[in-house]
Amino acid sequence: MVHLGPKKPPSRKGSMADVPRDLLEQISQLETLFTVDTQKLNTIVDHFIKELEKGLSKEGGSIPMIPTWVMTMPDGKEKGTYLALDMGGTNLRVCEVELLGNRDFDITQSKYHMPPEMKTGSSEQLWDYIADCLQAFLQSHHPNEAGEELSLGFTFSYPCSQTAIHNGVLQRWTKGFDIDNVEGHDVQPMLEAALKRKNVPITVTALINDTTGTMVASNYTDPETQMGVIFGTGCNAAYFDVVKNIPKLEGLVDLDPETPMAINCEWGAFDNEHVVLPRTKYDVQIDEDSPRPNQQAFEKMIAGLYLGELHRLVMLDLHEQGFIFENQNVEGLKKPYSIDASLLSQIEEDPFENLTEVEDLFMSRFNIHTTEPERKLLRRLAELIGTRSARLSAAGVAAICKKMGIEKCHVGADGSVFNKYPHFQERGAQALADIFGWNDIPPAHYPIKVQPAEDGSGVGAALIAALTLKRMKEGLPVGMKPEIIEKLSLEHK
Ligand code: BGC
Asked: Where does the Hexokinase C-terminal domain lie (predicted)?
């Protein structure tokens, strides 16, 4: 099934005939800075494959390549009712998922707004808030039921080292979060302690990354799915490897070497050493001003959180050099992260040749009057940033496929950039075609298809909880050897 749908018209470049020479020169420089041609993409893919391998090795590398202890794909016959909790960047979502045993499901869900201050608040505040939301959900959906312990699939989409499916030590916050006393700690006991304090009868059965959930949920409805990717506020991928290909598990597990193992790549950390990615001075600035400099190098060039910020930094730089918004007050543009990716989408989607919607947008949002040539530059800049994001994202997908020798598959994708950013899907598909040389194949028949996923953090989390309980019932391992889990958990206390 191809979900790219009817081909949208290509991004309109518009005529640049009336753009004065100095701005044309700036546009051309931006094109050089932000374009990732096929040759560069291939160099990135080759390096990426090596880094994926390194992450699985005993020595390790920048990409964490975390074994998730999800060791089976669903067979579609899973049944039962499970709770799922998704701690995203802006909202908290609680779902009750009923798996119907026929590759279908029913879902009831509530969304709770997560106050932005919480991103940098205290750890107790965070866990108490989550426990309150779970309690509110149970009270409104099961008001009269007394205390039977419920199983929860907790989607916590930050890099966590896992010794077993239900736990996870947060390696570092990403996506602008900065809450003290969580990094370096196992998040499961912290949530369970808050649940206990508030008498909420819930046990964390599985701790899940959104990419793993996305892969499993998409595979449930479309068994050709072999990878899950998120292109949203952050970016990342999960795929299935095999235990014998994961040298860092040697001696730690009691598993047949052929056992499949879902890997949460945490590929946002690719090229933290800055060997291969074509970083601009704006990328460097974003990194230096972020709460976690020198981390998530790949993510900071791709993910939704950073696209608007990149656009803002380029605009300010061009203004300071005297190329745009001459004699205008640009105070409104000076606040970091005041522009999000949706503004870039709006700029790219302005249907008018003279970009009057962009003019209205800049007047109403920033009180800045733009000339038509300036707007053409702003639009080209948005296209360049959006295209770079899509092409680099495709490099990650290609690297996993090449590493695993996958020539044909479906990739379940989710996230605001994938779902909402104009042309992201087509640009990504084009980049895959460039990398694999699918010159003579029409897009509808590209062998690797990145397509909209099923709800990973709801259905995926429920499925993983179901698969875990089934393994436990059968006496199969859901983590490292018990003595190793014990030893490592003592080390983290
Ligand atoms: C996190 C990943 C997550 C991705 C997409 C990244 O910042 O580190 O765990 O999968 O964002 O949400």
From this structure: 226-467
